[in-house]
Amino acid sequence: MFTDDAFYKAEQEHLFRGPTWNFVALEAEVPNPGDFKSTFIGDTPVVVTRDKDQSLHVVVNRCAHRGATVCRARQGNVPHLECVYHQWAYELNGDLMGVPFRRGIKGKGGMPADFDLKQHGLVKLRVEALNGLVFATFSQEVEPLTDYLGPLITKHVERIMCRPIKILGNQRQFIHGNWKLYAENTRDPYHASLLHLFHNTFGLYRSTQTGECLMDESKRHSFLYSKAGSNDAARDSEVYQDSRSFDTSFSLQDPSLLAGRSEFPDGITLVILALYPNLILQQISNTLAVRQIVTHGPDSFELVWTQFGYADDDAEMDAIRLKQSNLIGPAGMISMEDGEAVEIVQQAVSSDRKARSYIAMGGGGADDADHLVTEGAIIGFWQNYREMVGIEERVS
């Protein structure tokens, strides 16, 4: 599952290019006509553009002529897209608008007389946006985005994306492991207080906190939340008395890292929304971020972080979010540890490809949990993966 190229190729065809909605951008990344962002769905290069009428387009980043990458910059603003190889030019919606030397030169050469620009545009994807998150799909059959996400996930996307945002910065984390190990990690509240010493010791997250791990009806997406306000020092000391990740002897030389603001009336201080297949929407303390999974092969993927705040944040709130992002992002303790966890699994399973994991915490089913000691959402992920990719056929 984590090392075989056959699974990886099947995922690209049946999952990323199948009946799924994939996150591609924040609307705030392409606010103006002509803005573009190049990114990936699985390992397929795509370009997100903002057209003159403010509409959004997503096209495959591959020239219809000879297959070259059309858009080579990550972001920018252009009047149209143009392939550097032979200067084939495309409208922002992907329509082919011009071909150099189409009629030849001095009556010689050129394209055949029946060449039709309309037949040679970039491959266009379906696009939908939800409160500033932009998704695209190759599928003409998959249900509309909010139906795909379901009411629970849509509600909590709207909770975080509750008003206009501003981009605070991007970070990229290259991880030498299979992307599905990270899909497991972000559906796994069980590991968080045991792996992440900082989380547990300083009370950002503990499995003893009030929280739940819930899924949409299809079990493909998950919503994990907790409330740091429910910490109980006596109970936590008892539960974690033998745990290396709970060490009350530690203190911070600069406690301002944890000096944030309460900003959601429901008291929830940590949310991990895992949207199948390639997005994690995060609120941890005052950090807000999207994490996009970009696959590079069966044993490597990239995690593209975009940290954001709200457009009406004051300067102090901007500073709080930026400081806390140093804890959460790839340069901080949390994601660095998650990346290391993925890599030590990848290293161990690569030498014994027939071994199996044992995932049963919480009862062994894809069940919602009103606590944080469960692996139920991981099982939900695998049920959907099996249905789309077909584990049995490929194993046999």
Automatic annotation (TrEMBL):
Keywords: 2Fe-2S, Dioxygenase, Iron, Iron-sulfur, Metal-binding, NAD, Oxidoreductase. It is an enzyme of class 1 (oxidoreductase). Its cofactor is Fe cation. This is Anthranilate 1,2-dioxygenase large subunit. One of its GO terms (molecular function) is anthranilate 1,2-dioxygenase (deaminating, decarboxylating) activity. The keyword Heme does not apply. The lineage of its organism: Bacteria, Pseudomonadati, Pseudomonadota, Alphaproteobacteria, Sphingomonadales. It comes from Sphingopyxis italica. The keyword NAD applies. Its EC number is 1.14.12.1. Coiled coil: none annotated. InterPro entries: AhdA1c-like_alpha_C, ARHD_Rieske_2Fe_2S, Rieske_2Fe-2S, Rieske_2Fe-2S_sf, Ring_hydroxy_dOase_asu_C_dom, Rng_hydr_dOase-A. Residues 21-136 form the Rieske domain.
